[in-house]
Write a structure and sequence with these properties.
Blueprint: H1 3-19, H2 21-40, H3 47-60, H4 74-81, H5 86-110, H6 115-126, H7 129-135, H8 141-159, H9 166-179, H10 185-197, H11 202-230, H12 239-245, H13 259-270, H14 281-293, H15 297-314, H16 316-330, H17 347-383, H18 388-406, H19 412-415, H20 419-440
Helix pairs in contact: 2-5, 2-6, 3-4, 5-6, 5-8, 8-9, 9-11, 10-11, 12-15, 13-14, 16-18, 17-18, 17-20, 18-20
Length: 441
């Protein structure tokens, strides 16, 4: 085949792809997942996975009595629907991954980004391997990512007056909160935005209440279930352990009442093998803390919460320093896989280098996003108009601060569900910049 024929064929394929974007995204998504499945041939389990399965088994048995409330049921429902079959779960997560790409593409179109640019960016995201590796893990990230982009897709359509699906947005926010209660802040922000925009439109204001009420019912309802089983009205009984993770660097600097807890905590911190383990120190100390206190998991979590509040009050500067570290880690990228479990010989190093290169590119995008946050906010204030880039900047900024205040650990997992909208926000800024250049030229 001559070079001209190859060029014609290439142009014809691209023309078909532009005319059939959804089919193109599906084909690309399926191909990369099949290739990775053949190369990897492994389903990754993590400590979190067991907690999800415990609740899923209870849901299948329709028996929540005595459940200690570590997890909310959003992801365990998926496990229960899959009848606890890892293979079915991975297949569903692969489907969710492709659906996420389609929703991202449609969101780009809603924002009047050209079909060509929307498709190119979506296809780049389709081949981002760290995202796909989450689909081969029994973790909630893939499901969280799907509902995060669904919430933004519905919100942007309503914001742009292209739909009035307030109820669907409220239900989506509700299920997102059921997956991770941390996201209760998101519908609150969305409602405030709609409230400010529709002050003179009573009809839209009444519909916007769905966005606030449904997630609130979900959050409070599950907290009540935990109250019934554990005696504590909370969305998850991890809360004390999570907050205690932010005290790791000053664990022993507490009051006499909590000296024993602080000393045990500090002992495991100082005896850790590497700096990478410091964030999980409280979990290494957990067995000894449980033995010394004789408390159940929910009671020990409450004790750790009280210890954390007291210790933070005693060490405000150290806490602020730790919060900054947690906030900084939010902007890192994640890769969850098992290097030694790759089935194809020598493929693990190739995959590792590809992931490393992709993560560097995404890290650059995240840095750009952070630098653009003040620009977007100041620009919207000056023009008295909220742009989509500004809204995304505000939401992700608030998420980064809230997670940093709440815990220190695998903080980059908190940013993972926002990575696609971070890319979208930076893309909008680039398009705006190019338009300005075109006008000046």
């Amino acid at each position: 085949m001559t070079k001209n024929n190859l060029l014609i064929t290439k142009n014809n394929i691209w023309a078909w792809a532009i005319d059939n974007p959804v089919k193109t995204i599906i084909i690309a998504g399926v191909i990369i997942r099949l290739v990775l499945a053949m190369v990897y041939q492994h389903i990754t389990l993590y400590p979190d996975s067991e907690d999800y399965f415990v609740l899923a088994k209870r849901l299948l048995a329709s028996d929540l009595s005595g459940y200690e409330g570590q997890r909310s049921p959003g992801y365990p429902v998926l496990l229960a629907i899959s009848n606890l079959s890892p293979t079915i779960i991975i297949l569903l997560q692969g489907y969710f991954g492709i659906l996420t790409l389609i929703l991202f593409y449609k969101t780009c179109l809603t924002l009047d980004i050209s079909k060509k640019i929307s498709l190119i960016v979506t296809l780049i995201l389709a081949f981002y391997l760290p995202t796909i590796f989450f689909e081969f893990s029994l973790l909630s990230e893939t499901l969280t990512l799907l509902f995060t982009i669904l919430v933004f897709y519905l919100f942007i359509n309503i914001w742009k007056n292209k739909s009035t699906h307030y109820l669907l947005l409220g239900l989506s926010c509700g299920y997102l909160v059921l997956i991770k209660p941390f996201y209760i802040f998101l519908p609150t922000i969305l409602f405030i935005l709609f409230f400010l925009k529709n002050l003179s439109n009573r009809k839209h204001l009444l519909r916007a209440i769905y966005i606030l009420i449904i997630p609130a019912i979900v959050f409070l309802g599950w907290s009540y279930v935990n109250k019934t089983n554990t005696g504590y009205f909370t969305s998850t009984t991890f809360y004390g352990f999570n907050l205690a993770q932010n005290c790791v660097s000053f664990a022993e600097k507490t009051t006499p009442e909590y000296t024993e807890i602080g000393e045990i905590y500090a002992k495991y911190r100082d005896n850790r093998i590497s700096d990478k383990e410091i964030a999980m120190t409280i979990w290494q100390a957990y067995p000894e803390l449980e033995e010394k206190t004789g408390l159940s998991f929910p009671d020990l979590s409450k004790k750790l919460y009280d210890y954390s509040i007291t210790t933070i009050k005693e060490n405000p500067r150290e806490y602020i320093k730790q919060v900054f570290i947690s906030w900084r880690d939010f902007w890192k990228t994640s890769l969850y896989w098992e290097y030694d479990s790759v089935a194809l010989p020598y493929a693990n190093d190739i995959i590792l280098y590809i992931c490393y290169a992709e993560r560097i590119l995404l890290q650059f995008v995240k840095i750009m996003f952070v630098l653009l946050i003040p620009y977007n906010i100041i620009r919207s204030i000056r023009k008295c108009k909220l742009t989509t880039a500004t809204i995304i900047s505000l939401i992700v900024l608030i998420a980064s601060v809230l997670q940093a205040l709440a815990t220190y650990g695998t903080n980059s997992r908190f940013s993972f569900p926002f990575e696609v909208v971070i890319v979208l926000s930076v893309l909008l800024n680039i398009i705006e910049y190019r338009k300005k250049l075109a006008i000046h030229n």
